[in-house]
């Protein structure tokens, strides 16, 4: 069995937005990230996947629930303890340009985390920045360039190099290739996979692009309105989805050849507002197979097959 590295237990985040109203962005999420694996979090915009990523990074404080890293509870850490923990979990941002300081050359951007943690001597920090440039496929000459002198793909490679500077155990990548051209996306994804194989790091990969998820992930978590509705190995979930929402997501992916066209599950309406979510199953207002029973209780995540779990009362009865 794989060894768990990062775990959450019934993690929730509620934002107070004034006038007595609140927005529950993440609801009772329990997940496990194993050492050396890529865990993808997918869903439509507004499903809570980016908020969940920020909770894992502790950029947001959870309203309830717990987070464990390598067997230790990190939910309430602060000060020097938190600073030392942060070197273990680093982020790769969606927009490679705005994630970089426009006044800082590439070499200095990579060296900055090392300076912040006073890693080694100045010469050793310079050498590590040089080595990381090479490791992500950038020539040493790029180290003297500013972000505006780099392409989008080069900026994202720089962002990955910076994230690796402190030898983290986990990378949280929030839509890291969505702003890049398709050909460059493949290069960056392959780079991340090669780095994972070489360094043994774990990756939380947030995305809405299921073709990208299929390429890079080991396991998949599907979210809808702040809750997990299905999880399991990527090949099983993406090839034989169990939850109606997962099926609809996969049916929305364009088919590249007319002969491969199939009947599709079409969803009506928009994602319900988290300010006023539906009773029972939040997906029932769009679900093509919903029954009156779906409005009565919130379905729990249960096993529906080997290593696969889903939250649907219609699956529970099978």
Automatic annotation (TrEMBL):
Which SUPFAM superfamilies does UniProt cross-reference here?
A: P-loop containing nucleoside triphosphate hydrolases
Compartmental location:
Cell inner membrane
Q: Name one GO biological process term.
A: transmembrane transport
Question: Where does the ABC transporter domain start and stop, copy by copy?
Answer: 6-250
Q: Which GO terms describe its cellular component?
A: plasma membrane
One Pfam assignment: oligo_HPY
Q: Which domain of life is it from?
A: Bacteria
Show the GO MF annotations: ATP binding; ATP hydrolysis activity
What membrane topology is annotated for this entry? Peripheral membrane protein
- Annotated keywords: ATP-binding, Nucleotide-binding, Transport
Q: Which family does it belong to?
A: Belongs to the ABC transporter superfamily.
Matching NCBIfam families: oligo_HPY, PRK11308.1
Q: What is this protein called?
A: Oligopeptide transport system ATP-binding protein
